[in-house]
Amino acid sequence: MHTVIGLSLTNMNSYMRKEIIIIFCCLFNMACLGQSTSMASKPLMGWMSWNFFAEKVNELELKEMATAMIQSGLVDAGYNYIFIDDGWQGGRDMKNNIIADPAKFPSGIKAFADFLHGKGMKLGIYSDAAQLTCAGYTASLNFEEQDAKTFAEWGIDYLKYDYCNAPADSNTAKLRYQKMAEALKKTGRPIVFGICEWGERKPWNWAAGVGGQLWRTTHDIRDKWVKKPNEKWGLGILDILETNATLNEFAGPGRWNDADMLVVGLYGKKGPSGDGGGIGCTDIEYESQFSLWAMMCSPLYASNDIRKMNEATKSILLNKEVININQDSLGIQAVQKENDGSLSIFLKSLSNGDYALAILNKLDCSIPLILDFSKLGLEGNFQIRDLWEHKTITKSDLKKQMILSHQTKLYRFVKSN
Ligand code: GLA
Q1: Which long-range contacts (CB under 8 A, 24 or more apart) does 129-133 make?
Q2: Tens digits of per-residue pLDDT, 71-108?
Q3: Angle, in degrees to the nearest 10, between helices 14-32 and 2-10
Q4: Closest CA to 221 of 302, 329, 282
């Protein structure tokens, strides 16, 4: 193999040689670290149980949710995972095997995984790198191999691994995550590993190295636009954006910054994502979250009641043109080109030389859209698609646009010759 590469390299110009060498180095690194970009080569999409059911997660309603995901077109649009979050556990059996709560999952998790696989869907599950999870259920510390084996036998495709009740230091976190990553790998089943320590130990610097394909970058999202100055808990869309947007250099296929669940369509529902009795976000704000999460290559986990979605929620979650931005094969997280108290501008490189441009108005009033194309490097020949209006527009149309308060305008610049 060495000779073949050597021979072909001599016939190439230096630019091509450099590219080839970079590609081989990457492949070599991935092989050595045992990482596979085929796992989570695109940001995951699906529905996560925590915001809606919290601990009351159960087999019957999850099946209803899966059926609603299929019927509403969400599965066809790419949302193929159901992620069971905390609360499914029923302790351990006589042999210390972790078991599901028999009242919540009378048929067992394997039966649910089989049901989903039969519909072309996948199943995620949740555990924690301590003895107890965040909600106080049985977790996996010191049972990593045994639990990973159980998850593999059940047919699990993804593990969200939380960090409640575990020591605060980074070294312990890295060791505990690595231990579970290795246990998962040992099962031989490809199980995507999601690291959830809320960004406290800067996991973007080490999570891929210890075997994670994605990592939460912040504390939990709430159904609100922004945290109020006196509030201790609960981040809004804007708070998470401010952190996650700066981490673009760490993301890529098989290694994603996870900005937490979509709150789209929750409309102030009480529960873990509730805004202390508030009314939640507006549809414009939900649209913004969807656009911005897509631009940042964050996983797209819906968390609303899929069985009862209104038209606005459907048109957001099922916006295929925006989903395509998130799922673009290059997997490049948007670069934040501008950010001040009023505007944030993001540019995302897409395959085929296309770009996605997002402009967020953070102010409480509408403002006219003023763009400097040369500063953004968008001066070539492009067709412009408005991804919320679903129409092609011209550069002069763009200059006439107003951006509503908290709205994100999203455009695809389609390369044309
Ligand atoms: C933590 C996580 C949440 C959720 C809960 C479950 O708070 O960050 O996403 O999984 O635990 O208890």
Answers
A1: 129/161, 129/162, 129/163, 129/166, 129/173, 129/176, 129/177, 129/180, 130/163, 130/164, 130/165, 130/166, 131/165, 132/164, 132/165, 133/86, 133/89, 133/162, 133/164, 133/165
A2: 999 999 999 999 999 999 999 999 999 999 999 999 99
A3: 160
A4: 302
Ligand 1 atom closest to Cα of 216?
Answer: 8
Q: Domain residues of the chain, as ranges?
A: 3-9+334-415, 39-326
Beta-bridged to residue 384, according to DSSP, are 393, 413
Query: Could you give the angle at which helices 144-154 and 108-118 cross, rounded to 10 degrees?
Result: 40
In angstroms, rounded to a whole number, what is the distance separating the alpha carbons of residues 135 and 174?
Answer: 22
State whether residue 333 is helix, strand or coil: coil
CA of 220 to the centre of ligand 1 (A): 7
Do 262 and 300 meet the contact criterion of CB atoms below 8 Å apart? yes
User: In this structure, what are the phi and psi dihedrals at residue 325, rounded to the nearest 5 degrees?
Assistant: -65, -45
Tokens of residue 300, six digits = 């797209």
Mean pLDDT of 404-413: 98
pTM of the full structure: 0.91
More confidently predicted of 13 and 242: 242
Kindly list the protein residues whose Cβ atom lies closer than 6 A to any atom of ligand 1. 50, 85-86, 133-135, 162, 196, 198, 220
Residue type, 203: P
Residue 133 confidence (pLDDT)? 98
Distance from chain centroid for Cα 136:
25
Question: Which of the four CATH numbers 3.40.190.10, 3.20.20.140, 2.60.40.1180, 3.40.50.2000 does domain 3-9+334-415 have?
Answer: 2.60.40.1180
Tens of pLDDT along 315-353? 999 999 999 999 999 999 999 999 999 999 999 999 999
Does the pLDDT at position 16 exceed 90? Answer: no
Alpha helices by DSSP H, 33-186: 50-53, 59-71, 108-118, 144-154, 170-186
* Nearby residues of 364 by Cβ (< 8 Å), 6 or more positions away: 405, 406
The residues assigned a catalytic role are: 162, 220
- Cβ atoms 177, 214 nearer than 8 A: no
Q: What is the CATH number of domain 39-326?
A: 3.20.20.70
DSSP 247: G
Span from the CA of 195 to the centroid of ligand 1 (angstroms): 11
pLDDT band at 37 (very low <50, low <70, confident <90, very high): low
Angle between helices 144-154 and 170-186 (to 10 degrees): 40
